[in-house]
Design brief:
The complex is a heterodimer of chains A (243) and B (186). Chain A is built from nine helices and six strands, in the order αααααββαβαβαβαβ. Chain A is of the alpha/beta class. Chain A is rod-shaped and about 95 Å long. Chain B starts with a helix and ends in a 5-residue tail after the last strand. In chain B, strands 1-2 form a two-stranded antiparallel ribbon. Chain B has helices at residues 3-19, 21-32, 35-52, 62-81, 98-101, 107-116, 120-132, 136-143, 147-165, and strands at 84-86, 179-181. Chain B is elongated, with a radius of gyration of 18 Å. Chain B has 186 residues and is mostly helical. In chain B, helix 4 (62-81) crosses helix 8 and helix 8 (136-143) crosses helix 9. The chains are: A alpha/beta (243), B mainly alpha (186).
Chain lengths: 243, 186
């Protein structure tokens, strides 16, 4: 009986594509040593495969100027419109999946705008805007911030994070009211891509209206105003979460 | 997964989806040999993928997930047009007639023409394996067919391509007068 009769075309193709297990490979290789016709069959299959690869290697892949044909246009416009809702849907899904013991950051967030446009340096920049001094919410924010910073550090991906505080949120950054002064100090030391920023307008208001000379924690920056800072960062492509 | 970490994963996935454009286009072109159709298919695929990226449970399977979406877009496209297509009625190779190609020496044109004459199912399998290097299991998931069917379609595809492309004389080219189902190939 000829050796070639033992091996179907399916087996020969699977051998060519690296889909055989070790035993099957071994049997086939042994047969190949003795059977020229078997070798010829595999050679033909290899030639066909390389011809297919060759025939499409120069297919033009960039076609940015092409406009969709009419019968797709309506569907694409519909999809494009729905993409603006997709963020909401995405957040809705994540809210469903998010399972924090008491409260999720998403539940707490008043506003979320995720920016997917890549910056020149491909760094993801995220601005967390605190307007609350609720201890539970503050813990969630700091926990999630550290989790994200760690994740990016471990994956060696660039991330820039700013935690901006105004209104009640400023209490987190005041030496006289902060409940996380040690933790913030540790975070500042550990993550050089993290910065805490206080709202200058809020500080000024405290000083002038309530006669409180606020002392901020060490190494906290001051922005002229929270609104200005938010608009500036959004204009620069930062993602934004307000709590 | 924490909320912000999820946002970060979504962003990474979206960037990877955008990078797959060229590969999707190459396979879409090999399926239909129609640049307009390929372009439309890829745009629709990527729009759907970006919309549904939050539903992707296994990010490491992004590639086969994307090609699975494109397969569905392809099937939807032809389902809208007609259910049953005779290969002799449809010139899948938009730029050239088979008679014109008969005398062409250009290997690329000959191969593309031969691929276009395969049944749809065989064409899908052989392009996903040869152009994208997907495993048989991955192709099975992308096309929604058993692995055994992947192997038999691939085997028949390569045999027919060998018959068309490696024949010594052009007169030996078979007249494959087979019916082509636009939704699933034989």
């Amino acid at each position: 009986m000829k050796q070639t009769e033992r091996f179907s075309n399916e087996i020969l193709n699977a051998y060519l594509d690296g889909e055989l297990d070790t035993d099957e490979q071994g049997r086939l290789i042994e047969a190949l040593n003795a059977d020229e016709e078997l070798s010829h069959r595999i050679c033909e299959l290899a030639r066909v495969r390389s011809m297919v690869q060759f025939a499409y290697q120069d297919v033009a892949t960039d076609n940015p100027q092409h406009a969709p044909r009419n019968h797709f246009r309506r569907k694409l416009i519909g999809l494009a419109a729905s993409l603006t809702l997709a963020l909401g849907a995405t957040i809705g899904w994540m809210a469903h999946q998010y399972n924090y013991p008491n409260h999720g950051l998403l539940e707490l967030a008043n506003h979320v705008e995720m920016n997917n446009q890549r910056t020149r340096s491909d760094t993801w920049r995220v601005l967390l805007h605190l307007t609350t001094d609720n201890p539970t919410r503050l813990k969630v924010v700091l926990d999630e911030a550290e989790s994200l910073l760690n994740h990016y550090a471990q994956n060696k991906q660039p991330l820039q994070m700013e935690i901006l505080a105004n209104g009640q949120g400023l209490n987190l950054l005041r030496t006289d009211t902060s409940i996380y002064s040690q933790r913030i100090k540790a975070m500042q030391k550990r993550y050089d891509n993290l910065v805490f920023v206080a709202c200058g307008t809020a500080l000024k208001r405290l000083r002038e209206e309530r006669r409180i000379n606020v002392q901020l924690l060490p190494n906290v920056d001051i922005a002229p105003s929270a609104i200005g800072e938010v608009l500036k960062k959004q204009g620069e492509g930062w993602s934004y979460v307000q709590i | 997964m924490p909320f912000l970490q999820n946002l970060c994963l979504q962003r990474d996935l979206r960037a990877r989806i955008a990078k797959t454009h060229g590969r999707l286009y190459r396979v879409a072109y090999a399926w239909g040999h129609d640049a307009d159709l390929a372009s439309d298919l890829v745009q629709e695929t990527m729009a759907k993928a970006l919309q549904k990226v939050s539903q992707l449970r296994e990010p490491e399977k992004l590639d086969s997930w994307l090609f699975g979406i494109m397969t569905n877009c392809w099937r939807d496209h032809f389902r809208r047009q007609r259910d049953f297509v005779d290969i002799n009625d449809v010139n899948l190779f938009a730029e050239e007639t088979p008679e014109g190609l008969h005398h062409r020496q250009d290997v690329i044109e000959q191969v593309r023409h031969a691929v276009s004459r395969l049944s749809e199912g065989q064409r899908h399998v052989v392009t996903l394996v040869d152009l994208e290097g997907f495993s048989y299991n991955e192709v099975s998931n992308i096309l929604g067919i058993p692995v055994g069917t992947v192997m038999s379609r691939l085997s028949r595809a390569r045999s027919q391509l060998a018959e068309m492309l490696l024949a010594k004389r052009p007169e030996k080219e078979q007249n494959m007068n087979m019916k082509l189902r636009s939704i699933s190939g034989a």
